[in-house]
């Protein structure tokens, strides 16, 4: 009888422990879910830095393709162009880029090789290659371009994948425009990464008529999804078109809506002033000023 009572006590103790453990586990899962759903400042900084890289690379490609089709119509308003006013400055490329062109019929393959480290005038450091494939037809109003990367890094952020885009010589507003389908992964030195798929349209509203890189201005619209290393997804929709002035390191105006799970926030880049400040507003209307700087550097600080 004493042994039976002991067994019953042990069984009861295990039942209580199991209930307690399950309750704690459920509570922990709820806490984790709350953390996962929250849109953080690091989320916003990582998304913006990936967008900065995308825009900088697209600016070079836009300038190169436009130069290839319209070299005779562009004016060299300054001897200090992206290419430094030298013989290699085709399409706004600096001296440290090696350009290789292969043609097979109407198909043109252009390899832009930045070597082991090529510094742009805005102090960004690029390595590896960007490969462009397109059909050269000067009579058409659009050109379809495939852009891939080979060992390419932008300020130590590795870029892999493929973009395809349609380049229009002149849209309804009479200016160049490109619509891009993205499928690219950005990987930071600490192993964090973002895989991005979606579309982006860039309207080139200023600077296409000159060879000067710094006077380029774009209006940007689009939407995309970014999957982070932990598997969480942030969806971005541009609700007010973004303005990118290539003379500035940052987006100068416009609004992004960021969605993560059932949480939604907005990132407002301001009134056109060139600064590194954006305002993040969460679902409850709480505003936070965010300093936009490199995610990797921000994490180290």
Compact overview of the structure:
The chain is α+β, with helices and mostly antiparallel strands. The chain has three helices and 14 strands. It has one domain.
Tell me about this structure.
- It is a single chain.
- This protein has 301 residues and is α+β, with helices and mostly antiparallel strands.
- It has one domain (40-300).
- The chain is 24% helix and 44% strand.
- Strands 1, 2, 3, 4, 5, 6, 7, 8, 9, 10, 11, 12, 13 and 14 form a 14-stranded antiparallel sheet that branches.
- The N and C termini lie far apart (67 Å).
Secondary-structure class = alpha+beta
The total number of structural domains is 1
Count of alpha/pi helices: 3
Taking pLDDT < 50 over at least 5 consecutive residues as the criterion, the unreliable ranges are 1-36, 72-91
- Could you state the order of secondary-structure elements as H and E? HHEEEEEEEEEEEEEEH
Q: Biggest β-sheet, characterized?
A: 14 strands, antiparallel
C-alpha end-to-end distance: 67 Å
Mean pLDDT: 79
Report the portion of residues in β strands.
35-45%
Descriptors for this entry?
301 residues, 3 helices, 14 strands, disordered N terminus
């Amino acid at each position: 009888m004493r042994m039976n009572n002991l067994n019953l006590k042990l069984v009861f103790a295990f039942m209580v422990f199991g209930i307690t453990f399950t309750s704690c586990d459920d509570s922990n899962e709820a806490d984790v879910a709350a953390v996962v759903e929250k849109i953080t400042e690091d989320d916003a900084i990582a998304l913006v830095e990936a967008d900065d890289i995308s825009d900088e690379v697209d600016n070079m490609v836009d300038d190169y393709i436009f130069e290839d089709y319209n070299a005779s119509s562009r004016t060299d308003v300054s001897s200090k162009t992206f290419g430094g006013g030298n013989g290699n400055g085709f399409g706004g490329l600096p001296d440290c880029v090696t350009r290789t062109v292969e043609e097979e019929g109407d198909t043109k393959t252009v390899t832009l090789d930045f070597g082991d480290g090529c510094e742009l005038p805005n102090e960004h450091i690029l390595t590896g290659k960007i490969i462009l494939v397109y059909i050269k037809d000067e009579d058409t109003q659009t050109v379809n371009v495939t852009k891939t990367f080979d060992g390419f890094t932008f300020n130590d952020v590795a870029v892999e994948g493929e973009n395809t885009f349609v380049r229009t010589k002149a849209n309804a507003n009479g200016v160049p425009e490109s619509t891009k389908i993205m499928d690219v992964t950005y990987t930071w030195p600490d192993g964090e990464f973002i895989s991005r798929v979606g579309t982006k349209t860039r309207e080139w509203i200023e600077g296409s008529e000159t060879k000067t890189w710094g006077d380029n201005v774009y209006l940007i619209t689009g939407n995309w999804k970014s999957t982070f290393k932990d598997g969480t997804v942030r969806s971005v929709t541009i609700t007010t078109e973004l303005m990118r002035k290539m003379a500035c390191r940052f987006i100068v105006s416009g609004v992004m809506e960021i969605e993560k799970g059932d949480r939604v926030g907005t990132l407002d880049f301001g009134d056109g002033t060139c600064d590194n400040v954006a305002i993040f507003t969460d679902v409850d209307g709480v505003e936070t000023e965010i300093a936009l700087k490199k995610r990797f550097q921000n994490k180290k600080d």
